[in-house]
Design brief:
heterodimer, A: mainly alpha, two-stranded antiparallel ribbon, 14 helices, 2 strands, B: mainly alpha, MetI-like fold, about 70% helix, globular, transmembrane helix (chain B), transmembrane (chain B), sugar transport (chain B), cell membrane (chain B)
Chain lengths: ~325, ~290
């Protein structure tokens, strides 16, 4: 209980003090028993929080200005017909139009195709690579070499591959022709191959990310289990699927979600390589959005598209954060 | 160092697997590094030499690739015919500015988020991290409209602010992990000895300083490599390296030599920086999911 000194001249202050003390004890009691016993607070000085709020404030203010404010603005814009001049309210017209917009729906479908192809190849190659690298003597150097593509600006990577894919002097084009996979057609100019071409660039640049994440997962696989299983006569392959893979799943899930969201986030290399073409064979949704908003400057329509994209990302993000937080809970 | 396989039989199968693994690794390394090699070598080639290819299927003709007399003219033309000096400076200011802002405010916020509990903290945290993960194009639509009304489009401050949209949440998210690892007891002891709260905060900074330094570099890397923000928000007054490189692609006349040289100029510094902060690179690229 708090001791209220009768000498205090200011009854308001006394009342406030009592009120604070009560509020605090109520807060403590309201906490579940487990939380109180499991996580003892080493420290509980009077009004500690305000100080921390001051430290947080500038960052939160900046973020509010560059993320929250634009988000509301985005909603407002999506209800308007905005172009360079200014906007007028049109209600939900922008949204209604989306449903009859073939390219919008195609954009989602292509984005799904693109993401699935990228992720399938990256996870497959990435895990295989991680297993091989993990058993190599030169692991450190290999990882350093693998990190290199990720240091390159995606736009520059796009330009570089544009050079390699070129129909008249590109070395990769030449290799593919020499192997006999390709006839004379240019890789990026034909609708059949353009999609594979942009997938391949993404695979080149980002497979190593999956590899380093999987590598970290491999380190966590309990050796004793592997050995016990081996003693029981399991083949290495069986060992891999029975013990290694289940241990890899959690980290792989993180890797997949990260890459999935990055596929939504970065379109630099696609913009540079094909710009969505030929026709609209590689016009994945973010590219289409870029075109609508920043080529034709239909910002209102763009905002509506952007909002759908954001909602999907937020759902994915929610998933990701849940996965992220799991190991921490288990630890504590 | 963890022990190698304790049980390893040398059977034909395992030997075959080993050879296969080595082969796969070698192939993968070639696939990963070849583009870098081509870029580097092509940046020293004269235009006609860069376009030389052997006939289809003529594998012995690969040596054509090495038949050239090295020239530095592409590099010099970047700085004489194009003003890449300015673009490098723009890139540096935009990336460095946003990195410094992000890490200063980010570390304050990360520290306090790591030390205090309040209702809605998870939601606040989710908001912060979703800001980082939002698709750049989607963020740019309203940001462009806002920046245009504030006359920030085409200026370096605008670009710095735009980069802060992804760097600040990133810094908060990663640095919070760092501060979580520093026991509160250290600050507590300092405060018992009579330090103020801020002095206590400063006393633990040396413990996280290397990490913070590494994340300044990482923020620079993300901003330096950005293309979309720079192309739209920075268009005109604040041209950065990736955008300038892209602009060398002109419909009738693609200057491949210069593009490759510009690619080297854009990529090499980041690669060196990456090597310097190698230890934190993996943590940063995986958003803190993997710690080395």
């Amino acid at each position: 209980m708090t001791d209220v000194s009768p000498i205090s001249a200011n009854p308001r202050a006394v009342a406030a003090q009592i009120f604070r003390a009560r509020a605090h004890s109520a807060e403590v009691e309201a906490r579940p028993q487990s939380e109180i016993t499991n996580r003892p607070r080493s420290f509980n000085p009077p009004m500690p929080k305000r100080y921390y709020y001051y430290l947080m404030a500038p960052a939160i203010a900046i973020l509010a200005f560059i993320s929250l404010y634009p988000f509301f603005w985005l909603i407002v814009m999506s209800l308007q017909d905005v172009d360079i001049g200014g906007g007028e309210w049109v209600g939900f017209k922008n949204y209604v139009k989306l449903f009859s917009d073939g390219r919008f729906l195609d954009g989602w479908w292509l984005l799904a195709q693109y993401s699935v192809m990228c992720l399938g190849l990256q996870v497959g190659l990435g895990v295989l690579l991680a297993v091989v690298v993990n058993s190599s003597k030169y692991e450190k150097y290999l990882v350093t070499a693998l990190l290199m593509p990720m240091m390159m600006a995606p736009a520059v990577a796009g330009l570089l591959w544009l050079f390699l894919y070129n129909g008249t002097f590109g070395w990769y084009h030449w290799i593919l022709q020499s192997v006999g996979i390709l006839d004379n057609a240019s890789i990026l100019a034909s609708a059949n191959t353009a999609m594979y071409a942009i997938v391949l660039v993404d695979v080149w640049q980002w497979t190593p990310l999956i590899t380093i994440i999987a590598l970290a997962g491999l380190k966590r696989v309990p050796r004793d289990q592997l050995e016990a299983n081996m003693v029981d006569g399991a083949s290495p392959l069986r060992n891999f699927f029975a013990i290694t893979m289940p241990n890899l799943y959690p980290v792989l899930l993180i890797a997949v979600l990260l890459r999935f969201m990055d596929n939504f986030r970065f379109i630099d290399s696609v913009l540079v390589l094909t710009g969505g073409g030929p026709g609209s064979a590689t016009k994945i949704l973010p590219v289409y959005l870029f075109e609508v908003a920043f080529k034709f400057f239909k910002l209102g329509r763009g905002a509506a598209i952007a909002l759908t994209l954001l909602i999907v990302t937020i759902i994915l993000g929610k998933l990701l954060v849940r996965v992220f937080e799991k190991p921490q809970n288990e630890k504590g | 160092m963890a022990s190698r396989d304790v049980v390893s039989y040398d059977t034909p199968l395992s030997r075959a697997l080993k050879v296969l693994a080595g082969l796969f690794l070698a192939l993968y390394l070639v696939w990963t590094l070849l583009p870098f090699f081509v870029m580097f070598v092509s940046s020293f080639k004269d235009l006609l030499e860069a376009f030389k290819l052997p006939a289809v299927g003529d594998w012995a003709g690969i040596t054509v690739f090495f038949e050239f007399t090295p020239t530095f003219k592409h590099y010099t033309s970047l700085f004489t015919e194009n003003s890449f000096g300015t673009y490098i400076l723009n890139s540096l200011i935009a990336a460095g500015g946003s990195a410094v802002i992000s890490v200063i405010f980010g570390s304050l916020a990360a520290y306090s988020l790591s030390r205090v509990d309040f209702r809605g903290k998870q939601d606040l945290f989710f908001w912060i991290i979703s800001t980082r993960m939002a698709p750049v194009v989607a963020v740019m639509v309203p940001l462009y409209a806002i920046f245009r009304s504030l006359d920030l489009v085409g200026t370096l401050p605008g670009l710095i602010l735009a980069y802060t949209t992804f760097n600040l949440p990133f810094a908060i998210w990663i640095l919070k992990g760092f501060f979580d690892n520093v026991p509160f007891a250290i600050e507590e002891a300092q405060m018992v000895d009579g330090s103020t709260r801020f002095q206590a905060f400063r006393s633990i900074l040396p413990l996280v300083a290397p990490g913070i330094g590494a994340f300044v570099v990482l923020c620079i890397l993300f901003a330096w490599n950005d293309f979309l923000f720079a192309a739209i928000i920075g268009s005109g007054g604040a041209k950065t390296l990736p955008v300038a490189t892209r602009e060398l692609v002109q419909p009738q006349n693609i200057q491949w030599g210069s593009i490759m040289a510009a690619g080297v100029v854009t990529t090499a510094p980041m690669m060196l920086l990456g090597l310097v902060i190698r230890k934190y690179l993996v943590t940063g690229l995986t958003m803190g999911a993997v710690k080395e």
